[in-house]
Amino acid sequence: MTETITLTPHSSSPTAKGFLTDTSLCIGCKACEVACKQWNQLPLDDLDWFGTSYDNTRKLGATTWRHVTFAEVPGAGGAGGQTNWLMMSDVCKHCQHAGCLEACPTGAIIRTEFNTVVIQQDVCNGCGYCVPACPYGVVDLNVEGSAADGKAHKCTLCYDRLSDGLEPACAKACPTDSIIFGDVIELQERAERRVDDLRDKGLPAYLYGNEEAGAGGGIGNLGAQFILLDDSARYNLPAHPSLPQDRTFGAVAAMAATALALTAATAWAFKKS
Amino acid sequence: MPGLGARLGRGGATTAENDLGNADCIVIMGSNMAENHPVCFRYVMKARERGATIIHVDPRFSRTSALADRFVRIRPGSDIVFLNGLIRYAIENETYFKEYVQAYTNATTLINPEFQDVEDLDGVFSGLIPEEGRYDNSSWQYQGQTEPPSPPMHEQLSSMSYAQRVGNLEGKWPPPSDPTMQDPNCVFQILRRHVSRYTPELVEELCGVPQEEFLAVAEAISRNSGRERTTAWCYAVGWTQHTTGPQIIGACALLQLLMGNIGRPGGGIMALRGHASIQGSTDIPTLYDLLPGYLAMPNTFDKHETLHDYIETETPKTGWWHNLPRYMVSLLKAYYGENANPENDFCYDLLPKLSGDYSTFPLFLAARAGAVKGLFLMGQNPAVGNVDAGFMREALAHLDWLVVRDLFEIESATFWRDSPEVKSGRLKTADIKTEVFLMPAAVAPEKDGTSTNTQRLIQWHDRTVEPPGDATGEPWFIYHLGRRLREMYAGEDTPQARQLQSLDWDYPLDERGEPVVEEILKEINGYTVADRKQLPGYAAARDDGSTACGCWIYSGVYPEEGKNLARSRVSDEQYSLGWGFAWPSNRRILYNRASADPEGRPWSERKKLIWWDEAEGKWTGHDTPDFPVDKAPNVPVKEDAEGMDALSGADPFIMMSDGKGWLFTPSGLRDGPLPTHYEPLESPVENPLYAQKTNPVAKYWPRRGNRLARQQDPNFPYAITTYRLTEHHTAGGMSRWVPWLAELQPSFFAEISPRLAARVGVDNGDWVVISTPRNEIEARALVTERMHAHRVRGKEVETVGLPYHWGYSGLVKGDAANDLVSIVAEPNVSIEEAKAFTCNVRKGRLRREL
């Protein structure tokens, strides 16, 4: 794989590649899901039906690297039972400060020359530290089914295709250009213009994937950003994601307090005896 | 097909999918376009991005609705009320495009004063012969015109040739007209009276669409039509599969003519075909009643005994179809090669003559009765995909032999061991004598060939991977079957043997033994017989046997040696004339002469497409002119002329006998010259308009098991409609066996509203049984607010939505929605009524022996 492992803040890196997923253009066709599975030769997950709108994929996982969410919003569209139906293709965010990468003890998770975050399968030992470290629930261990290898898997932003100058399979397959691949810097500019346009049309559009929304808490910018039309929770995206190390203060403090209390109690007990 | 053909001249989409991006307003009705045509929907999204208004009119809130600016929920089966309401609105508010209508449609033409409308006769047009279930259309004719040749309206036969569809005007030419459109017998006044009752109040009452929503649509269309702006319409089988299907589509064509939206950029009617090359399979047809290029299949009812008879009967005196003899003779030369010569009528007598209706339903009824011995199924899965699929499976069980060529072992190949009928004991495997031959087929990327998509665009595809195992393409199968049959019949002297022996069956084979497909395309394009040079186009076809042409409308796709235009891939920002080849003659927008005014100037700068270049003396512009390129706008109609001379330089609809778009169809449709509202044969709502409640000439095949619910039958109180999902392909043959697709929609479900769920007593995910008088099936309930009752004539009408992809084989299984549908058909092209019928729903599952 790559020699150029860099921790340059990637939104400012001219080489950073990423996605812009514009939900105002998504028609929920799932071509991205199928193109991803086909190109990456990922097996089917299950054949269960869940009754959750048209979504039987339900989550990203070790063998599902694109996932189209369907949110039926009752009554939002006016009278007569009309509803809003929000569709969005979720994917690994390729974070500027990636929790998975920082949690990986073996160096299996790297930042590539495209400033994307990739798990090297030949290095991963399946420890699973990256799984809870991801603020978005993207990374998963492959422990079930015929293709189970116990290792961590997620979107590679089609590292192999990028290396050959091709765009990722999902972006290539998207019929309405809801998924756009490109330089993150350009995509950000494009997204800002697009958000302005959508707001001019009266839509409550905003960008998810920067310090203001979707990538605060020290995550920085996202390599895969989204234009959303509703509360991010409707799309199953956390409004305020955080890195695990930022969640440690409470734990450390609690542990310290417990230790102090135990010490005090012990001392008190000894003193008493 | 006749919905568009009878009013405009050709049974194909009038526009190109990339031209939808030029529309100012797009109305999608009778189609769930985002789900079933996601690639084409790209251009709808482009139009929306440019500021166009997108309107979706449908019984269900689907993925298309979610992307539209306006969703209008309409009751299944009430489409004509809505469309006639729009027509009335345009006329009464004078928002129609008057100059266009006067110049380019038959609005000004005078109709036989004996014509009586449904308004006069309580729901039927003049000429109904009730005991025969058909119309005599002589009173529908233009004034002074002799009656057209009697259409083959025999009970058994549904076919109607193009000559009959586009009219065959034999009387004094041109027919009388009133350019002021005031004469009470002119088409415009007849139309105005006909639609006068379709008020916004009636739309609300019958469609369940609030008046203000209907008016918002009417205003959007009016605002976005005229010189400066255009509106496009998109439809699919949501309009086709009704006992009034061609009339619904015809109502749209009528409206688009009235608004001046045909033949212009961003206008037109996009007939969305169900899957790859459905358009191609009507152009070079798998239909029983057509020969390639929409030439009528000879039959035993009309005067078709000799080639001379056929040509005499079929060739219209006026318009482009006057060239029919060239196309017919060239086709016979392509079929029979050097065996075809003027002395033997070019082997015309070897063509089989139709002696009855061999459309799908009569064919399967005959199979059930034991009259059909063998059947080839290639790319079709009637055990799941045909209406009353249970009956279809029974019919398959009464064949002697069945050849199924498919990608997987589909239900139609396994009905004898695992169909619901076998599991329930109604059929016993031991009693089924059908010998099934399952042959593996190659899928598109595994074979060379073309497909013709929804916009008539012929595109070549190369073999990119080897097919697995013994799988082969259709050319291999057909060629070698023909070769072996010819060998078997080599020494025999019978008519059947001569049919085989006389065929020109000489195709070069590649190293795999497959015919070289490009050679077939060259034959379809046509060539001169003497020197085997490719024809540059159908204008070069001759009726003397000097040319051969396999399908005249495709001529030009391979205009010279080594030049396969279907393979061409040059795109540009306009009409991409260098991408593939669109029949006819690479025209992307049909009837585009109408994009210019009668003098040949664009109606507006913003909507210019082709125009008359006075200096050059020819038509020019962004598209290939759909008009004789050097015929000046001011060329007058020649009195009593023939062929194209009978049309003026301002008659854009060159396939029609009078060069006009037909608001009123004196011939061409069996169920009336104007669209009128009839309820579906099964309906929860009473038709308040007339004593005649349903289409009086709809087809019904009486048979035990093919029972219909009564009108407003309390036992079947809910409307029901069937449809498809993005994730699956029609009857599932290409998706239920593919893991990546099967997992996306793994179960058959019924979409119902929360209110209906509460009435039935089910929650989301519970099992329900859906029943009709034909059958009952089970499904999971998908309870969603996307479904909602319609308030119609004071009562709430609930609709049940069923995707029809599942069957008893594959990675994901489920009941077939088509098991519920009846065998009825509209009278023009025998299409079923699967989009609006009635059912009941109850909680629970079916008890089945497994």
Model regions low in confidence, pLDDT < 50 over at least 5 residues of chain A: 1-11
Strand order in space, largest sheet of chain B: 22-24-23-29-21-27
Q: What fraction, in percent, of the residue positions of chain B are helical?
A: 10-25%
* SS elements, strand count of chain A: 10
Q: β content of chain A, as a range?
A: 15-25%
Could you say which structural class the secondary elements and strand pairing of chain B correspond to? alpha/beta
The geometry of chain A reads as globular
What CATH calls the topology of the domain at 2-271 in chain B is Dimethylsulfoxide Reductase, domain 2
How do the strands of the widest beta sheet of chain A line up side by side?
8-1-10-9
Description:
With 273 residues, chain A is of the alpha+beta class. Chain A has two domains: 10-242, Alpha-Beta Plaits; 243-273. Chain A is built from seven helices and ten strands. In chain A, the strands form four sheets. A four-stranded mixed sheet of chain A has the order 8-1-10-9. In chain A, strands 2-3 form a two-stranded antiparallel sheet. In chain A, strands 4-5 form a two-stranded antiparallel sheet. In chain A, a hairpin with a 5-residue loop joins β4 and β5. With 850 residues, chain B is of the alpha/beta class. Helices cover 24% and strands 14% of the residues of chain B. Chain B contains 25 helices and 29 strands. Chain B has a six-stranded mixed sheet with strand order 22-24-23-29-21-27. In chain B, strands 3-2-1-6-7 form a five-stranded parallel sheet. In chain B, α1 (2-8) runs parallel beside α12, α5 (79-92) runs antiparallel to α9 and α5 runs parallel beside α12. Chains A and B meet through α1 and β3 of A and α3, α4 and α24 of B.
